Amino acid sequence: MVRRNLTAAVLSGVLAVSALAGCGGNGDDAGSGSGDGGDGKITLGFSQVGAESGWRTANTKSIQESAKEAGIDLQFSDAQGKQENQISAIRNFITQKVDVIAFSPVVTSGWDAVLKEAKDADIPVILTDRAVDSQDKSLYKSFIGSDFVEEGKKAGQWLVEQSKGKPGPINIVELQGTTGSAPAIDRQKGFAEAIAADPNLKVVKSQTGDFKRADGKTVMETFLQSTPDIDVLYAHNDDMGLGAIEAIEAAGKVPGKDIQIITVDAVKDGMTALADGKINFIVECSPLLGPQLMDLVKKTNAGEEIPTRVLTEETTFTQEQAKEALPTRQY
Ligand code: GZL
Q1: Structure confidence by residue, pLDDT tens digits, 271-302
Q2: Which of 52, 168, 286, 294 lies in disulfide reach of 70, CB 3.0 to 4.6 Å?
Q3: CATH architecture for segment(s) 148-285
């Protein structure tokens, strides 16, 4: 009798402990070891770049809300823009034996070793937002995100159209995103390819503003001091463009008129500046990757084949289109 009661007590204790461990998935505390926390929930380890821009904030919100919606236990880690923090977060996820790992790689290179450790631990990895330059495509199951070369091309093609019939030279300054990141590399590449169509268009200065508003302002200040006759600013994201607008106005020039401005993202602050005429054209880059990511997580956890590349849908905005779109923007 005692034994039976004792067994029952021990059993109920074990169930209670594993259930509790599974209920801890609020995105902060360590996992429970078995991956699903014993409560049948999928545990997803996610390493985010940081909180450098309005786009990143919206992307984090999309991932956290979608995980909750999907009943997925999210272990969320903010790398504060440092690759070494992302690598250690991924190693922690492997130790915790999460079911799936997803991350937005802050830069393209230096991932093969840690991705191999995840593969050896039989934990599938999904890339979101940004790509890696690993030659071994077996190191991750899928990459969900935008085509940044295409985004750069859209920006350049708009400028080529706008510049038709104008006398040259048309001097362009460029605020690049985070050095070594896929969006910075590819947005610069696509833009350069597109403006090659018009020999009057010349990028006279190009420097990183690290996707940050404050850095965009300080770099634009140096551009304005060192470069006479700037006609166009191409910023790899809205936040750097908004910082540059502060510098342009402080220099007594009119953004959107004295200096035409093209940015990428289409977050609310950028769209507001576009509607106000301070930016001339924005190429959208959607941060709302959460729902599709959770779908891929569930499928890969169930052993289903998933597409190796999921391209996000996005468009472009003129000033008039921004006025129409602003009231219903989600971010
Ligand atoms: C693009 C994303 C970029 C955004 C920036 O997918 O990686 O990083 O364009 C963000 O705003 O900081």
Answers
A1: 999 999 999 999 999 999 999 999 999 999 99
A2: 294
A3: 3-Layer(aba) Sandwich (3.40)
